[in-house]
Structure formats: structure tokens, C-alpha cells
Design goal:
Length: 102
């Protein structure tokens, strides 16, 4: 009986690898590719910031860019100024979306 069992499992290599390959392709399209797109958009945003842009940080602060460095941004906020990393800027906001104005 064991000879019969071995004969059935010898050709099963491709049947084992195919689901793993499909899982890898699925992970690429559902996880890796979207993350790369988000990362690329974030880098484009950080490099295109200019003085006067109204921005929102990942922490929820709203401010106006008043200074730029290589890896930091100086934001003018209601109570003064704050320096944050460029990667902490989540996006630009339109002037009318800031509410009371910063």
C-alpha cells in the first residue's frame, strides 16, 4: 500500500508550488504595489513643497510653510512656528478648508 501512496505523490510538486506562486502574486498586487505608490506620492509631495503652501501633517496640525530645509519644513501655526520633517507632511490643503485660517 505504501508503494501506491508514493506513486500518487511524486507528481505533486507543481500542485504544491502553484498556490504559493498565486499567493505571492496576490500579495504583490494587494500589499506591495499600493504601498510603493503611496510612498512615491509622499516623496513627490515632500520634494514639491514651497513657501506659502498650506499643509496638514500626519499629526493633524494645519499650517503654512514659512521655511524649508533639506529634510525639514518650518510651519507657521496659530501660536507660532514649528519645525517638522518633510515626511510628516500628509498633504496640501486648500485655503478655504483650513477653517479659521492659520
Amino acid at each position: 500500500m505504501s508503494v501506491f501512496y508514493l506513486a500518487q505523490t511524486e507528481g505533486g510538486g507543481i500542485n504544491f508550488l502553484l498556490p504559493l506562486l498565486l499567493l505571492g502574486v496576490l500579495m504583490y498586487f494587494l500589499i506591495i504595489r499600493p504601498q510603493r505608490k503611496r510612498s512615491r506620492r509622499q516623496q513627490e509631495l515632500a520634494s514639491s513643497l514651497e513657501v506659502g503652501d498650506q499643509v496638514r501633517t500626519i499629526g493633524g496640525l494645519l499650517g503654512v510653510v514659512v521655511g524649508l530645509g533639506d529634510d525639514w519644513v518650518l510651519l507657521g501655526i496659530e501660536d507660532g512656528r514649528i519645525r517638522v520633517q518633510r515626511s510628516a507632511v500628509a498633504g496640501r490643503i486648500s485655503p478655504d478648508a483650513s477653517g479659521s485660517g492659520s
